[in-house]
Amino acid sequence: MTLREYAKLMNDTALQGSLSNEEYNRLYKPLLDGIQSMIPPMLFRYRSCNELSLQALWDDKIWLSKGNVMNDDYDALLYFDKAKITAHVLQAINEFSRFTSGKVSWEELPQVVQRFFPREVLCQMRESVAHITAKDMETYLRHFEAFSQNAIKAYSPKISVLTQNTLKFACFSDTITSANMWGHYASSSTGFSIGYNFRGFPCVDSVGEGNSELPTRCELFPIIYQSRRYDATPYAEWLLICSLVNDYFKTFSSQGNILDAAKILPCPDMLAPIKIMIHKSTEWKSEHEWRLMGTFATPALLSEEHTFVKKKASAIYLGRNISPIYARLLLDIAREKRIPVYKTLVNANSRNYHLKPRCVFSPDGAEKVWPLTTN
Q: Which of 28, 145, 153, 282 is 20 to 30 A from residue 213's alpha carbon, by CA?
């Protein structure tokens, strides 16, 4: 599968929350199979030389972080059209008056109303106003309209940053020869890069918080670069309506009903958080990025700022300006774990700008002579 084919399939695939597990897996499988066919022999994670990065390498851990700590202000930031959502909600409120008066059945309501308010929700709302007068009904609807508009205004900023503040992922590149990547992400080539083989990597792997390890779902995705942000309006609309309906019943329901709208209002696309995470501006295209995303079923893991995935490195690459002491430390780790080590050097005999890796240690052969110079 090509990157263009992958982008089209990803954007065209919508997995609704009402799908059975069998149907969900059937629709998702072509996308996962396509991604597996695209995974290069190795993906690279650029690191600065510090205690945390060395410890993670030693412990076979890949740490996942939230989008709000990344160097791109738009990373995993949700975009939606607030004006469109407001218009849809007001339309739904007007249609609700016809439903409560018995002029139309739920099946006859426009799709926009059915999408926002499931049958159970509307029926409960109708019951709560069944005995009021037409005048009181008009007042009730105006209250609901004002409540909805205020709720959208209040929720919108929180919805905008929801994915950026909750999604956790680790970033990789499919290139090891880029001077740009070494300069930006490995402290001007004084750091190192870790190569990982993700081919055949299972969706379910081990992650942990602190010293514990818990199973969760981890998936690898190539980044889709485009000039405009991914439009997540349907997903944001769902999030807003769930919050609106829940808060409405807490505030206005005379029966004091407690409702979890998310359980009865199906998500329009459960891939939406992934799509938000993997879309980036074309300005970042030269990074050839892939992302490992974790999905966390427990509140403890979800609330953690950083969470790890267990994965052993396949190779270590030393920056051409790395200090001798860090080079020795990384070589010691490599010997212990039987991981090959390369040093990246400027290719003086080539007209292109690609650095050239040179093997300095092979666990299956004779150890090469370590060059102490940085040339």
A: 28
Whether 314 and 43 have beta carbons less than 8 Å apart is answered as: no
Q: Specify the pairing of strand 168-173 against strand 306-310.
A: unpaired
Tell how far CA 37 is from the center of its chain: 21
What is the mean pLDDT of the segment spanning 118-145?
Answer: 74
Burial class (CB in 10 A: 0-12, 13-18, 19+), 149: middle
Q: What integer best gives the mean pLDDT of the chain?
A: 84
**Is the backbone of residue 200 left (phi > 0), alpha (psi -120 to 50) or beta?**
left
How far, CA to CA in Å, does 18 sit from each of 106, 274, 302, 321? 18, 18, 24, 54
In whole angstroms, what is the distance from residue 342 CA to residue 362 CA?
A: 9
Do 304 and 188 contact (CB within 8 A), yes or no?
no
Length of the chain: 375
H or E element: which one contains 208?
strand 204-208
Tally of CB atoms within 10 A around 325: 9
Match 């995993």 to its residue by tokens: 76
Position 168 pLDDT exceeds 80: yes
Q: State which amino acid sits at residue 90.
A: L
Which residue's entry shows tokens 């240690």? 361
Which pLDDT belongs to residue 134? 73
Q: Which helix (H) or strand (E) holds 87?
A: helix 82-100
Q: How far apart are CA 315 and CA 337, in angstroms?
A: 10
For residues 218 and 297, give the distance between their C-alpha atoms in angstroms, rounded to a whole number.
12
Average pLDDT over residues 29-40: 94
Alpha-carbon span 117 to 259, nearest angstrom: 12
pLDDT band at 133 (very low <50, low <70, confident <90, very high): confident
CA distances from 87 to 90, 92, 145, 309, 323 (A): 5, 9, 11, 43, 60
Encoded tokens for 219: 């998936």
- 231-245 residue pLDDT tens: 999 999 988 888 887
pTM of the model: 0.85
Q: Interior CA angle at 205 toward 204 and 208, to 5°?
A: 130
